[in-house]
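Hi support team,

I've been running sequence recovery on a batch of backbones for a student project. Most finish fine, but this one hangs at about 90% for roughly twenty minutes before it completes. I'm not sure whether the input is malformed or the queue is just slow. I've pasted the structure tokens below so you can try to reproduce it. Let me know if you need the job ID as well.

Thanks,
M.K.
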């Protein structure tokens, strides 16, 4: 049974989530996600699952690591009086999505490394895609995260959030990197672009994710992978430009030395 927690999402494009805890309540988070915590809140880092022994903790840690999260997880427990507060921020620009797992069938599938924090009692598990094609060409890799429980969980995605409630049989074709999360009753698969020329020269992917209802789907406008590709491309361009300037500058110095040197010989 997960703890019942209150929360407030602060900010617009660089959001954080502040969780309010009653005495004895706790929230768990990805290691390094904490922004601040108030009086009475105690922090303890562990592998999780130690109640089942060292092997149980190792299994929990490895499952999180496979989904792109830290091997360790940090628990924040309010051991003081009154209300306790702890806030969490994400490592790149985007939105925080609150997920009430109890109203979503008890579980949610998310892109890897989307987990930010959750009430104590929510499990972060590894979820393999059902079809090999979806795993190999699904953009975010063969592994998805599964958040399981009956409490509140929070995930972070890039850019703007678009939420769709799919009717039975309704299908959306989505860029693979833009799929942020979906309920487990949504059918997930990949499909090849019918026009290879458009896929190759139009800047879109060769494969798209196919999401078929019924169920809830969250999409993100700016996947971190897309942002990272642009940053890497810009950095590589500037580096190559600098190297070209360095070679040209060295040539100018050499030419200047030859023309402006001692000509008495």
């Amino acid at each position: 049974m997960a703890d019942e927690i209150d929360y407030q999402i602060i900010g617009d494009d660089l959001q954080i989530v502040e969780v309010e805890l009653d005495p004895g309540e706790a929230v768990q988070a990805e290691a390094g996600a904490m922004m601040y915590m108030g009086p009475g809140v105690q922090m303890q880092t562990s592998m999780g699952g130690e109640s089942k022994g060292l092997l149980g903790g190792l299994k929990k840690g490895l499952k999180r690591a496979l989904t792109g999260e830290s091997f360790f997880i940090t628990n924040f427990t309010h051991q003081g009086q009154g209300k306790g507060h702890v806030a969490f921020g994400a490592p790149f620009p985007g939105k925080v999505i609150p997920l009430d797992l109890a109203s979503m069938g008890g579980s949610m599938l998310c892109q890897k490394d989307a987990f930010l924090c959750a009430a104590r009692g929510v499990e972060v598990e590894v979820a393999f895609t059902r079809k090999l094609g979806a795993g190999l060409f699904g953009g975010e890799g063969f592994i998805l995260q599964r958040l399981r429980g009956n409490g509140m969980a929070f995930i972070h995605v890039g850019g703007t959030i678009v939420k769709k409630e799919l009717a039975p049989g309704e299908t959306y074709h989505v860029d693979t990197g833009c799929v942020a999360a979906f309920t487990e009753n949504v059918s997930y698969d990949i499909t090849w672009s019918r026009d290879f020329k458009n896929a190759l020269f139009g800047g879109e992917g060769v494969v798209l994710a196919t999401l078929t209802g019924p169920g809830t789907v969250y999409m993100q406008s700016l996947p971190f992978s897309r942002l990272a590709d642009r940053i890497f491309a810009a950095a590589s361009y500037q580096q190559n430009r600098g190297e070209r300037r360095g070679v040209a500058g060295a040539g100018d110095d050499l030419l200047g030395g030859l023309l402006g040197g001692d000509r008495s010989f």
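--
Follow-up from support: It reproduced on our side and the slowdown came from queue contention, not your input. The mean pLDDT is 79. No action needed from you.
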